[in-house]
Specification:
There is one protein chain. This protein is mostly helical. The chain has one domain. The chain has helices at 18-24, 31-44, 46-54, 59-74, 89-108, 124-134, 141-167, 171-177, 190-197, 201-224, 233-246. Helix 1 crosses helix 2, helix 3 packs across helix 6 (124-134) and helix 7 (141-167) crosses helix 11 (233-246). It is globular. 33% of the residues are buried.
Length: 247
């Protein structure tokens, strides 16, 4: 096993970003594009479920509508409307979902889940539990969607970072240090961390610094997967960090 988590992807990051792959191949059959789109959908479907629920649909209807929307999306019925110049998977999904709900939800909700398509396997039962627990009843659907999108990206980045530490044989270190990712620097209990990890306090500080630095890299790479070009990453990062600061 490696001794430390992997380093950032560097300049090659945009060679295989998921949304750029989808956009590049949207006019033709491409297994790579289909796989990239499915990865994105599996990772970031929950914000759309929350959007549908906040529009006033019941849990059962929201489950069926979300499944049917993604079944059609994966069949590439909507990809022709994707605008590479706008460049954000977040925006494309919301616009496509609005169109779907406005034009077809009454028919789609009567379909059995999947409606003749092969549905994406989504844990919509758990999604409803999560939706109820989160509250935020005062937020309009668009704002709720944006916040849940930002949180989904954060959760994805955390999962990837944890996987790196697990692969490096440092699961315990990650579990002990992860709270430091959201703590103010002055509030981090380095002495307690050092004792828990059997390190010197100086070594604990270095470990926290490395974790926070690597998280920024992983979060940036995760965000990059949802935009179509390098130029859009910094703006998207600033916007998402702002949303996370509100929650």
């Amino acid at each position: 096993m490696p001794d430390s988590p992997q380093t950032a992807a560097g300049p090659s990051l945009f060679l295989t970003t998921h949304w750029s792959v989808v956009l590049a191949a949207r006019d033709k059959s491409s297994p790579e594009s289909a796989m990239a789109l499915e990865v994105l959908c599996r990772s970031y479907w929950y914000p759309l479920y929350a959007f549908v629920r906040r529009q006033g649909h019941s849990p059962t209807d929201a489950q069926d509508l979300t499944q049917e929307f993604f079944a059609r999306l994966l069949a590439k019925e909507y990809l022709q409307a994707a605008d590479p110049e706008k460049g954000r998977f977040r925006t494309f999904l919301r616009v496509a979902l609005r169109r779907f709900l406005a034009n077809e939800w009454d028919r789609a909700r009567r379909l059995k889940r999947g409606g003749g398509h092969t549905p994406l396997s989504l844990d919509t039962t758990t999604a409803e539990d999560r939706y109820q627990a989160e509250g935020d009843d005062a937020l309009p659907p668009d704002r709720l969607y944006e916040r849940r999108w930002a949180r989904a990206l954060l959760e994805q980045a955390l999962a990837r970072l944890r996987a790196e530490y697990v692969a490096a044989g440092k699961t315990t270190e990650f579990e002990q240090l992860k709270e430091a990712l959201t703590a103010e620097r002055g509030a981090i209990a380095y002495r307690d961390l050092a004792a828990a990890l059997e390190l010197s306090e100086g070594a604990a500080r270095v470990a926290v610094h490395r974790l926070r630095k690597r998280f920024r890299e992983v979060f940036r790479a995760t965000v990059a997967e949802t935009v179509s070009s390098p130029e859009g990453v910094e703006d998207e990062l600033r916007y998402l960090v702002g949303l996370l600061g509100e929650t």
